[in-house]
Structures
1.
Amino acid sequence: MNEQAIKDLLYKLADDQLILGHRNSEWTGFGPILEEDIAFSSMAQDKIGHSLAFYTLLQELGEADPDTVAFTRNANQFHNSQLVELPNGEYDFSLIRHFMYDNAEIIRFEMLSQSSYEPIAKVATKLKGEVKYHVLHANTWIKNLGSSTEEAILRLQSALNEALPYALGMFEKSKYEQELIDAGVYAGEEAVKAEWLKRIQVVLEKTDLKLPDLTSINPKFGGRYGEHTEYLQPLLDEMAEVFKIDPTAEW
Amino acid sequence: MNLTNENILTLLEEVKDPEIPVLSLVDLGVITGVEISEDDHVTVNMTPTFAGCPAMDYMKKDVERTLEKHGISNYTVNMTFDKPWDSNKLSEKGRQHLKEFGLAPPPKYDVILDLDILEHVACPYCDSENTTLRTPFGPTLCRSMHYCNDCKQMFEQFKPL
């Protein structure tokens, strides 16, 4: 198997989780209710732990150590989807993004747990159990708020419309896509997306929210190839601020 | 001391989860294997409960300190996902200790975990199953928060995984 293809896959998995983990952590102290403050903070911790598991696999393939990889690259070296780097906005946007992202993430992990590349399969087997809780959290809130007051429904629908092109951007294909599929390493973005649409529809059908017609939407691609919005670099600067004061410090 | 797997596991009973001090790492199920080579090199394999658990590094160092304290200097402690942790790996003794500590032990499940079981967690104080999940996230990654509708108390559960 082409090692570059495996690395490309690991980078996109790890970077998505690191960046969304950081965004989730920005809710600490600001959640609309205490339980939500704790939930987003816990998911931040989980996601950063998940990124560490994948950066560790990269290190085993000869890449730099996880801290160096996480804290010293510039935006154009990151492979995350643009969805995860967008600012948190208000709670409605964070919730919709969380719903869309985690419903895709769990499918990736379920599929990767069957991967022919054993190190990824082992990590994915472990992480899919943890992400179940993130999906439970997202689906519960979308079901509750998506069929509650007029304001809640309106806000969530508007956040959904805004996030959707970016959510579809999560499924941007790698330049090694076919190679990974043929080798049984990864089922590929088309397969993940098809299953994702089914699962989010099941939840949305229980609410007053509507998924816009996908044919009229241009996915926001580019993230997997280092093209990012103006929001990623400031996020990275803030995330690495302490690390960069003394990169050799022992913590 | 005779170096055998059993002896090493007995020593490791001393190492407790720093956030749940009644629970040993052996009962928690995070010690996945002990190997002793012909030249008496001790290898302890560990696996995290939750991948992002900040206590794992501390637990690993605690295992190393405990081995050293008992005069074992030729050792390696590995943290891997080779045998991933799930909550069915908690021992019966560990479950009992959790309950005494006031934490509901995770229910056992077959093969696939359905999170619907979170709606009927037995209260560690009065054993009632008339409980409500308040949030799947708690003060640490491995705990969820519940309310007992009978004894009217909030309680935490060690999450099934």
2.
Amino acid sequence: MRPFSLLALLLGAAVVLLPFFWMVSLSLKPADEIFTARVDLLPSRLAWENYATAFTEVPLARFLVNGVIVCGGILVFQIMFAVPCAYALAQRRFPGRTALFGLVLAGLLVPFHVTAIPIFLGLAELRLLNTYFALIVPFVASVFGIFLFRQFFAAMPTELFEAARVDGLSETAIVWRIAFPLAWPAATAFAVFSVTAHWNDLFWPLIATSDPALATPPRGIVYFRDAEAGDDVGPLMAASVVVTTPLIAGFLFAQRRVTQGIATGGLKA
Amino acid sequence: MIELDGVTRRFGATPVLHGISLAVPEGSFTSILGPSGCGKSTTLRIMAGLDRPSAGRVRLNGVDVTEATASERNVAMVFQSYALYPHLTVAENIALPLAMRQLSRLERLAGVGRLVPGAGAKRAAIGARVREVAAMLGLEDLLARKPAALSGGQKQRVAVGRALVRDPSIFLLDEPLSNLDARLRVQMRAELAALQARTGRAFVYVTHDQAEAMAMSDHVLVMMSGRIAQAGAPRDLYARPATREVATFVGAHPINLLHVTLGASGTTALLPGLRVTGAANARVTLGVRPEHLAPAATGVAARLERVEYLGAESVVHVRLDNGTPLRALAPGDWAPPAPGGALTLAVAPERVHLFDAETGARLPAAAERVAA
């Protein structure tokens, strides 16, 4: 049984990894090798100039910095709002709590594209398009974050929070000094989801910004597509590699925490 | 001291506490004893400010604190699960209540706090106090550990230390020993009593274990289904239980209860040699503790069923001629007859408790010895 499942997993991994491999391979191929009739998996020589072009032809470094600013801003605000909300939903008793949690769950069902146009119009009226604000603010309240943290906090023993109240902690202090530090696995899992989604997001930056100085990495890669001069595939792939690498590195780094955060969803006593 | 005045608590429509009034005086070790579900933990939570009474008032040192939150009252609480903060070391766990009360918001901020004038001195004072408490509880070597690396007894000590580190007006303990093994429980019992004597503060100790309540406290409140069934010193509860339920709950060995109808002269055929004056023809419940019913040369005739040998003493299970089962206590060196053999049990009449057969309330009448 074991060799079979291993084989199946390897095949699956190969299918998933092939585009990545192809991307890396293309990013290192000289221009004349890219458009050939044959399929060569490996480049005949390593064309590092594609990477140089990627960084010089467009301000790729600027795009990466923008990506960090936007994803970081979104994540900080998401956690700032989701953690206290989740704590209140899990560990405080107030009228309408269940109904409110029901609304949070309902919010999970609404795709962003449904609200994108009203948000766009609102930002346009406020003359806030083409700002970092426009890239960050539509995502600061994450129902998924509230849901994930709530499940985590609900599994924590109530006595822990009661002890904190007796010890003189305010509810805000309990959230940030007790609940949040114990929710690290959930926070890591959420951070990976959030950063991946917003780092890769092309839809909203394409709508909300037109200023190249504000372009996030995927928005920036689009600048390599030039209808008149033709697509510059080598540097485009090089830029894609550069844009994807931080995500893969980040995920590998957080991998164990992520599975922990999703699998346990609670606190081991 | 803490006082409850007519405190009622309802969860939805279900009343859990029925107008409880009590006072825990300064320096007293008071136990709230009762079976599970009697409302003893709810009473403690109302004292702590973790729960609000549906009606009635709570006063702490004469000040009405009914609406005050737990953090506004200066009370300390030890929880059954210890509720230590898993992400903080032992030292940080003990220091947290002090830091929250003595340092300002700015001074508590990591990094920034050290730059505020005076914060360093305050931190040093907190550190000194933590070490002092740790030394008192024998935790000096564990200060850098996380709770996950502690044994049950050590966690218990840290929880006590966290309560002890500031000077609260009252200590509330919610079954703090129930997760420990039997030997450790007896040891911690003595340590907690010594600690209470040392601090001189009032302790309110919730337990379902009558041995803990009797051994540690100077005052015991027995709670039964949301009411205080009896309040008094451990000796009073044992010697003069106010109701049949209290008599059943208090005492290491379960009391024998005999439902009888007394004759015209106040006697019963079940326990010859006994007469109750002033209760002729009444239906009563006689309560006889096993330790007051011992094998003797003369007395009540019975047949031996089983002997539980416990070392210092033996629990003797017998059956009276009419089939009523009884438990008696014999010294450990007592030589029992063969099972089914006849024996006689002596009863001390002044040790027999009388309860109303209907209400279970204690009757004022007393039993006396008559010539059989």
